[in-house]
Design goal:
Length: 377
Amino acid sequence: MMRSAFFILLLGVPLTGCNSDSVLVPVGGVPAAPRALAASYYAGAVTVEWELAPSWDGEAFRVYSRRVTDSDYFLVAEVTSCSAGLCTYQDVNVTAGETYEYYVAAVDPTSGTETSTASTVEVFVPTPTPPAVPDDPFVIALDGANFVTWGTASRGAGDFSHYRVYQDAGTTSYLLGETDSEGFLDLLAANGDTYAYFVTSVDTDGHESDGSVSAEGTPRPDFHGEVLFAHSSDPARSGFRFSADGDNETAIVSGTDASRDFRLETDVAGWWLVPNTGVQSTAGYLTTALKCGVAADPSCVDVSVAPTSDASYIVGDVALFPQETYVVRIGTGAAALYGAFRVVFQGQDQDANEIMIVDWAFQLQAGNPNLAPAVGG
């Protein structure tokens, strides 16, 4: 670029003759002034930003600040790097209830000459008053995901902006994301692992509330529309086993397969679950869905938590009825695994085979009775 230059003639050095040792030393020029100065407050800090002049030549910038009640400005920072024609500085040494004034100057690296912005900017730092802590969250466990939801209490603040959802990992926490609705879907949650979550609320100035209580959820496989044949109609497809992967691992096995959890049998008295050794089932619960998940109807009824008392389980065959959900316990005590299936249809196919269509879910974590949502902690 074209820059003004000034030179100093060193005294005591002769200027005549071919072998003159005179030296001209440049002492710098006048840098171009920063442009479009602006400042804003958010989340306890003031961000000062400005644009580079077209003739900017890599000079550094000095940021000056003062409270409007002060008589003098103070140098608060020197900025040496900018990006895409824009420079920023974040001032966190600010006090609530004060108004601050800023200006920025470009600094010539050789002469130290400063050229400041044409004007200053003022920013008021408000007293941080975040919205109310969000209602206790609730986690609905899905297949390969957790859906976290909570109430609307925080929206009572006139300056409410959004929520932040964190994964609670004991001694630390991780921000998973932000949302302006009372729900968040964690698609990174893996089946068989338990995750804890808490939520904060944020106002328009970036002030964040304390965290809510934590709630846990353990994703588990589920499958819809599984077709099971009565043992008398098709023995090879009359057995059922809860699988770790409903999409890639078959749940339908032979009625005599050693890995089955139960098989389906029918007689003149009705439809029957016939359990394998070490497997027990509850009687049916009248439900409207296997699980009342995201956006479920308010009247939805499911079995979200398996009973854990021995008295809830039947030793032997269990009668099966449409629109009822049955909880199956495999093993006992802390090592027990819990699954649930809901009878969607009982009838015949086009070949007069007796079939039953079920939706099912299976908790992979031993001793964990949560089949759909988990209880907030």
